[in-house]
Prior knowledge:
Structural class: alpha/beta
Strand order of the largest sheet: 2-1-3-10-4-11
CATH class of the largest domain: Alpha Beta
Low-confidence stretches: 5-18
Number of helices: 11
Mean pLDDT: 91
Largest sheet: 6 strands, mixed
Distance between the termini: 56 Å
Number of strands: 11
Order of helices and strands: HEHEHEHEEHEHEHEHEEHHEH
Strand content: 15-25%
CATH superfamily of the largest domain: Bordetella uptake gene, domain 1
CATH architecture of the largest domain: 3-Layer(aba) Sandwich
CATH topology of the largest domain: D-Maltodextrin-Binding Protein, domain 2
Amino acid sequence: MRARAFLIIVAAVGLIATSALAQTYPTHPVSIVVGYPPGATSDLLARTVGDPLSTVLGQPVVIDNRPGAGGNVGAAYAARASADGYTLMIGTDAMMTSNIYLYKNSPFDPAKDFAPITNAGVNIICLAVNAELPIQSVADLIDYARAHPGKLSFGTPGTASPHHLAGELLRQKAGIDIQHVPYKGGGPAVNDLLGGHIGLGFLSLSSAVPQLSTGKIRIIAVVEKSRYAGLRDVPTIAETVPGVEMSSWLGFFAPAATPQPIVTRLHDEIVRILKIDAVRDKLGNLGFSATGSSPAELADDVRSGLALRGQLMKSAGIEPE
């Protein structure tokens, strides 16, 4: 009985301490770790949300860029940071669902080492074609690919990127023979698409839209579950080939064991910020559709993404480096 009473007292003291911590949090600057260099979509998201978050928290929010190994350097650092709410991280779908299959000896476990806060939204991926090709739609693309097997190449920002996996998914679902050409980023890929060195490109919308005015490329579809509000006339690939969906999402995470009251406060504040018109418009101009989700929904995004990406990468013959 004495032992049980002691445990109850310890638990009560712990709850009181956690509650007190949440009420006083934060008392010094909060950092948001970004596993990519300045200018990347994840960096722009962190800075766009960071400024208003600093205001509501009453403390500076510092963006800490730690690029390397496809985001693994930053993620490994954040996973091992103190679980006190002072180190947050922008996690991408690539970091949290693909990298564990792409890199040997992953330095973190995406499902166990983090406390999900909220899925901030999606970085829209589109399918663009060189304008000299007689392709106006996904159906046209499939017909052309079947008539010219192995002749069409699609460029992406890199191997195992969601853009690459979107192309592999289309190849498998439509039963067409198209060749992948990986680039070191979206910029080089769109440049070769403009020059006609590749016929297709699975690109972030932010890379493709500025090039539409050249008349050298056209966007024929987006790789999302539903049409993008900023391009209502552009269909999804799934409208022609059901099941071809690939969401490139970005979310906020904290180290595992971060006190739940702190996670809840951060979730509420960040989701509120994402709903501000000025924030949504700024991110929308970058081709990013801001949403917000519950921590449980983000955890499910990680779990389901791990299963889907693992299967896709295996079928595509992608081996860990």
